[in-house]
Amino acid sequence: MRCLLLIVIHSVLAAETFGEIILSNKAQHTHTGETVVLSCKYPQGATKVRWRNWQGIIAKNSDLDSKHTFNRRRFNVIADQIKGEYNLKMSGVNQSDSGLYWCEMQIGGEITQQRVTLYIDQYGEIVLSNRAQHTHIGETVVLPCKYPHGAKKIRWRRWQGIIARGSDLKLKNADDRKRFKVAVDQMKGDYNLEIADVDRSDSGLYWCEMRFGGKIMQQKVTLYIDTNIDDKFVLSNKAHYGYVGETVVLSCMFPRGATKIRWRRLQEIIARGLDLNVENPDTRKRFNIVADQMEGEYNLEISGVIQSDSGLYWCEMRLGGHIMQQKVTLHIGKFFFKYVVI
User: Fold this and answer.
1) pTM of this prediction exceeds 0.90
2) What are the CA-CA distances from residue 81 to residues 40, 46, 84, 307, 332 (Å)?
3) 3-state secondary structure of 251
């Protein structure tokens, strides 16, 4: 009898950690991108029911913890008081979601836990194609992707994250959302990514990814933005002089048939059409486009010039399949006043 009592006590102590009773401890496997449900059952009378992981409280009752702002879009609590269920649903899981989770509650003065260790397994990735594609600054480029019947979770990605999922763009930058577009044709099985007005920052590796037959299939494209322009396409290269505080006009003439006309400087587009693309509010007040379609003029007016406005500007356009440039180097001087005492 004494021996049996010792065995029972040892069993209880093995299931306790700092006063917490572990009712269950299991493993659950899923794959990257899947939706998984971690289950938890609670009896009548249980209080302070919550889901936790090593980072802290994930959910308390039916409310997700406000600190997990990113997870609030992917995590959800599914509670059923009749069945005594308090399940945690996680969608679009990734490697950072793996680890130990536990459903915790208080029953009769005791804290109990139901533990789940979540393992995120990666599908074997099969690279169907890996090619290079070249284009020039200002061009529109189409990155092709073909998908078979039955493929699911089709998306375009690059190293920064998901660009598009289905027909929805996932880009945060407002300018990129205007330039990127997904062209889908279900009949042909096309899921192409179209990028308008490409710039240097668009270069790099893209891949079209899909789930098919339990595998992740990828079609990779490395986009190269060729920036070298033959000298014969630089129509003019001149200097313009102004003084601090003055208004200067940088002139640009465009012929009939020219498209995608813009003013550029360094790594940025200043104006595209009649729209300024300048983020600094003070600069937006000083810069203006003066266009005259009849005369073929697309001039850049800068009022109240300052020293930092000096440098190389160029008016760029597409004509006959080529990029044409008219370059202007702006030099800003200072007025000097000489006082004569009589």
Assistant:
1) no
2) 12, 11, 5, 69, 74
3) coil
Q: pLDDT tens for residues 218-260?
A: 999 999 887 655 555 888 999 999 999 999 999 999 998 888 8
State the DSSP H helix or E strand holding residue 300, giving kind and residue range, or none if neither. strand 297-302
Q: In what order do the strands lie in the sheet with 99-107?
A: 16-17, 20-31, 110-121, 99-107, 47-53, 56-60, 63-64
Relative to beta strand 204-212, strand 20-31 is unpaired
> What's the Rg (C-alpha) of the chain?
31
Query: DSSP secondary-structure letter at 123?
Result: P
Q: Which domains does the chain have, with CATH numbers?
A: 2-121 (2.60.40.10), 125-226 (2.60.40.10), 231-333 (2.60.40.10)
CA distance readout (Å), 208 to 120, 128, 198: 22, 10, 19
Q: How many whole angstroms separate alpha carbon 154 and alpha carbon 193? A: 12
Alpha helices, DSSP H, located in the chain: 2-14, 174-179, 281-286
pLDDT tens by residue, 81-102: 899 999 999 988 887 888 889 9
Q: Which residue has the tokens 């009849």?
A: 294
